[in-house]
Amino acid sequence: MDVRKLEGSIVALVTPFAADGSVDFDALGRLVDFHVANGTDAILALGTTGESATMTDEEDCAVVRFVVDRVAGRVPVIAGSGSNNTATQIRKSLAYQELGADALLIISPYYNKSNEEGIYRHLTATADAVDIPCILYNIPGRTGCSISAANVRRLSVHPNIMGIKEASGSLAYAASIADCLSDDFRMYSGEDALTLPLMSLGASGTISVWANVQPALVHAMCRAYLDGDLAGAKRIQVEGQPLIAQLFCEVNPIPVKDALAQMGFIEGPVYRMPLWPLTDAHRAQLADALGAAGVDLPVANDLAPQSLLSSVTEKEGRND
Q1: Fewest CB atoms less than 10 Å from the CB: which of 45, 127, 134, 206?
Q2: What are the beta bridge partners of residue 86?
Q3: Which pLDDT value is given to residue 308?
Q4: 25: phi then psi, degrees, rounded to nearest 5
Q5: What's the rounded Cα separation, in Å, for the pair 7 and 219?
Q6: What pLDDT was estimated at residue 306?
Q7: What is the pLDDT of residue 298?
Q8: What is residue 85's predicted lDDT score, i.e. its pLDDT?
Q9: β-bridge partners, 164
């Protein structure tokens, strides 16, 4: 499909790690196949949920290469190439384009933040440098700065910017950029609890954490709304709220990786520090929410959740 027409449920995929801290490509393959089989409309690798902040460049490239190869053209693959260093964002974007990504998720600069014109130039320079479409990522809770509505208007007409992932949690902000939306510039919800409200403002779907554990359901919700079944979409969104709340009971992606471990998809779970496992109380609440949502929970494995220091060793051959 033409990625510029992408709509529906895009999973913000976790990066599973093995007990030794390396990327677990066997588990990653199972997750990719799970999503393709359950109707996920596209896969985002190396987003916030993918813990790319603690991964090496070699690991990042290996993950993108693996996901592209495993998907084999069945759904679009988006790669998160964001950085607060414009030159680094461009370098990563070109690398992921070469590896076969269909689109890129690019972010406003964090920590150094920049001023209005600097944010505009940072994002424009990346879109100018590549040949595949870019999705802006507005998540001020992580970056410390928002892509202003004025800048969204300027960026929305760039021929290589196809949309925005809106994760500010502000319906007022989403409404303020809704007049920019068209077939050439789409909005995707970055807040699972607000997907339908954002779709009511014109969003084409969601880039979702929730979809990691219930991909068929999130796809069905988006499809129902897009097909005019507003009551059906509303029912899924409302009934999903208790699980969504538990998936964000601590900093993302700590709860969702724990959920996937409880489901038997990944080991541990294993995190890269500074992320740390869920408290026992939150883990129990998450298990209850998964059960209430009808998610199958096999007998727990023997691996305790753990948090490991990031490895800087070479990861050659991990995607074979």
Answers
A1: 127
A2: none
A3: 61
A4: -70, -25
A5: 10
A6: 63
A7: 80
A8: 97
A9: 136, 187
Which tokens in the block code for residue 78? Answer: 């988006």
Six-digit token string for 272: 């890269």
- What span, in angstroms and rounded, lies between the C-alpha atoms of 4 and 194? 23
Residue 281 lies in a domain: no
Domain assignment present for 316:
no
CB 77 within 8 A of CB 47: no
CA 313 to chain centre: 26
Closest CA to 271 of 245, 237, 310: 310
pLDDT at 309: 61
CATH number of the domain encompassing residue 189: 3.20.20.70
Q: Are 282 and 251 in contact (CB under 8 A)?
A: no
Among 192, 197, 127, smallest CA distance to 160 is for 127
Q: What is the mean pLDDT of each run of 10 residues along the chain (320 residues)?
A: 94 97 97 98 98 96 98 98 98 98 97 96 98 98 96 98 98 98 98 98 98 98 98 98 98 98 94 96 97 83 54 32
Largest CA distance in the chain: 53
Per the domain annotation, does 84 fall within a domain?
yes
- Structural domain including 69 reads 3-235
Domain count, the chain: 1
- The angle that helices 230-247 and 280-292 make with each other, rounded to 10 degrees, is 160
Rounded Cα distance, 46 and 92, in Å: 11
Look at residue 304 in the predicted model and tell me its pLDDT. 53
- The CA–CA distances, whole Å, from 100 to 61, 131, 150, 186, 255 equal 11, 11, 32, 22, 30
* CB-CB neighbours of 307 under 10 Å: 16
Do strands 161-166 and 134-138 pair parallel, antiparallel, or not at all (unpaired)? Answer: parallel
Residue type, 171: L
Tokens of 223: 């499809």
Pairing of strands 186-189, 77-80: unpaired
Name the residues annotated as catalytic.
137, 165
Q: What is the dihedral of CA 299, 296, 275, 211, to 10 degrees?
A: 160
Per-residue model confidence (pLDDT) at position 211: 98
| Strand residues in 103-169 grouped as ranges (E) | 103-107, 134-138, 161-166
